Amino acid sequence: MSIETKKTNEDNILLATLGMIKQAVDLSELSTEVYDHLRTPMRFVEVAIPVEMDDGSVSVFTGYRCQHNNVFGPFKGGLRYHPNVTTDSVKALSILMTLKCSLVNIPFGGAKGAVVCDVPRMSMKEKERMTRSYVKTLGSIIGPETDIPAPDVFTDAQVMAWIADEYSTIMREPSFGVVTGKPLAVGGCVGRNEATGRGCFFVAREAAKSLKIPLRTARVAIQGFGNVGSSAAKMFAEEGSPVIAVSDINGGVYNEKGLNIKKLREYVEQTGFIKGFPGGEAITNNELLSMDCDILVPAALENQLTGSNAGDVKAKLVVEAANSPTTPEADHILKEKNILVVPDILANSGGVTVSYFEWVQNNYGFRWDLATVNSRLEEKMTEAFNMVYSFYCESCVGSDMRTGAYMYSIQRLAEAMMYRGWLRNGISRK
Ligand code: NAD
């Protein structure tokens, strides 16, 4: 099945991702067969997920699992619960996972799953029944050696535990390695919860070093204060960098001296939102994105920096904690403004890296301590940033870091495809 669509609008992240892949394959002078493999997911499944609601009625939700490419190993990718999920976004996010795993050199392929639903309107029991129904429907195509889901937007450790339990029931044996991002009590890994934000901080630290931005005084603005955004904020604050603004779906808060992130996290835990936090003044999401700051971290959803607002960005460095927060038009504008954008496939790869650590521990029945997990994550992220940044500086003159990261990742994928015999005409363009 071809994954190309006729949609041409700016916010179609599938078209944007495919455009980047095509460009990277061409610039690397790789065989066009490499593009053909990467533009087409190996399997895309759309399913009906019946769920008994608390009032006794049955709602049928739409679910997806896209298994994009497994040239390196089992498919791996998050499960998202969101009302705006589309087939194109699921496919694009699965491609990003393939590229991410290749970039940080971990032996997984790329996948993504989703259910179209509005979780804040559902009870905990409804969410549990929906999760179990998803596993009953798709249980035959996931597994510790085939496809391993993980948390994403509106899914968390509890959702992963339900998946592990339902899958183990189907398999008639404990099989917790089917998901990562689990609670510690059922085979989770210490540090997994904060890994994406922590990894994003390590990458930002290395990028700031390269741009000679002193991190201790760098003013940071973060869009999105969920799992990733709040963990990244905590890391920046611990480093001493003033986090001057953060926002969530309902708006944001600003304090020119730096927000008290510990108190803000406590406030959000109690109230659910940033709005009303007494330690700063209220701002809108648009004001956050155009804030006078040194480092901007989009950590919410896709398509936040667009052709209409990228011209207002004042940061010197954008670190993409979210997947696809920048449209191609915005990328072009930011490049013209000489703003370095550290792309999502590098900046948010800390999550899948620690997911890999969790999977390894599950396979060996062994547990690492937090210091080991964090230091291995730091090593992996620092090494990945420096390799990709050097490659970009040396091989992508006149281009941007996203192009460099795509080229670097795809060259690795192409090599593996060649050795596995997937490229009939060899790796290079003749
Ligand atoms: P989350 O649901 O925990 O948090 C999302 C945050 O974004 C919330 O604070 C929400 O209010 C905010 N938000 C949503 N829409 C917004 C808008 N229009 N403007 C401003 N804020 C908005 O999700 P998360 O796990 O933190 O994921 C955030 C991003 O990071 C996503 O793009 C996800 O795909 C990506 N990501 C997550 C992980 C992970 O390990 N959780 C790993 C890699 C990438």
What does this structure look like?
Helix 1 (13-27) packs across helix 14 and helix 3 packs across helix 14. The protein has helices at residues 13-27, 32-39, 87-103, 124-138, 157-171, 192-210, 227-239, 261-271, 285-289, 328-336, 344-347, 350-364, 370-395, 401-420; strands at 43-52, 58-69, 75-81, 109-116, 147-151, 220-223, 243-248, 251-254, 281-283, 295-298, 317-319, 340-342. It has 3 domains: 8-39 and 408-430, no CATH class; 40-177, Leucine Dehydrogenase, chain A, domain 1 (Rossmann fold); 195-347, 3-Layer(aba) Sandwich (Rossmann fold). A hairpin with a 2-residue loop joins strand 7 and strand 8 (251-254). It has a 7-stranded mixed beta sheet, sandwiched between helices. The two termini are 27 Å apart. The protein is α/β, with parallel strands linked by helices and 430 residues long. Residues 151-154, 196, 223-229, 247-249, 285, 299-301, 321-323, 348, 351 line the site of nicotinamide-adenine-dinucleotide (NAD).
Short structural summary:
This protein is of the alpha/beta class and about 425 residues long.
